[in-house]
Design goal:
This protein has strands spanning 2-9, 12-20, 28-40, 43-50, 53-57, 60-64, 67-72, 75-85, 88-97, 103-112, 126-137, 144-156, 159-160, 164-171, 176-179. The chain is mainly beta and 180 residues long. The radius of gyration is 19 Å and the shape is flat. The termini are far apart.
């Protein structure tokens, strides 16, 4: 069962999405967002207010923490978006724009990589936990991702992966990330 509701009132809106797939993975949950559309100096702005919500997937309950997101033509600003399940946590905060000093940060705390198995071939098999931080410097002419990630007891196709450290830079000419 899937239900999507939207309520509009002048420049304000509320949206809710709930789902229950009634299957073995017990996928069910809800997401509730309120918003305000406004104009600031010829720039359309959308402020999103994510309300405490939750979803259940693969026998785990995930809690979506309240947060605020601001969108405009110059970029996006996220004020501490987070999802928590037991000792696992995913956090996202910061800004994406044309200004090189602005950074979007992703925090992972004991994130169970096995959730990726639903997206990849079955013989690839990923397991383990990831803890770390990745930062995206968002200037369009010099994008960069810096990461300090530790893989704890992580296996890919039955091969231990150990500790992983990764840095990437954006190659504007080739329109791709270069990993090092």
């Amino acid at each position: 069962d899937n239900i999507f509701q939207v309520h509009l009132d002048e420049n304000r809106f509320g949206a809710g999405f709930s789902f229950d797939n009634h299957n073995e993975s017990e996928a069910r949950g809800e997401l509730i967002i309120n918003g305000l559309v406004s104009k600031e100096e010829e720039n359309m702005v959308m402020d999103l207010d994510i309300k405490p919500s939750s979803f259940h997937y693969d026998a785990k309950e995930w809690y979506i923490q309240p947060s605020k997101i601001r969108l405009n033509r110059d970029g996006m600003e996220i004020d501490s978006f987070g999802v928590i399940s037991g000792e696992q946590a995913i956090g996202l905060f910061g800004k994406i724009s044309n200004i090189s000093e602005e950074v979007l940060t992703l925090n992972l705390e004991r994130f169970d990589l096995s959730v990726l198995n639903a997206l990849i071939p079955s013989d690839f098999g990923i397991s383990g936990a990831v803890t770390g931080v990745a930062e995206l410097t968002s200037a369009h002419d010099n994008m960069e991702i810096m990461a300090d990630i530790v893989c704890d007891s992580t296996y890919i196709a039955d091969v231990a992966m150990g500790e992983v450290r990764m840095t990437t830079t954006w190659d504007e000419q080739e329109k791709r990330f270069n990993f090092s």
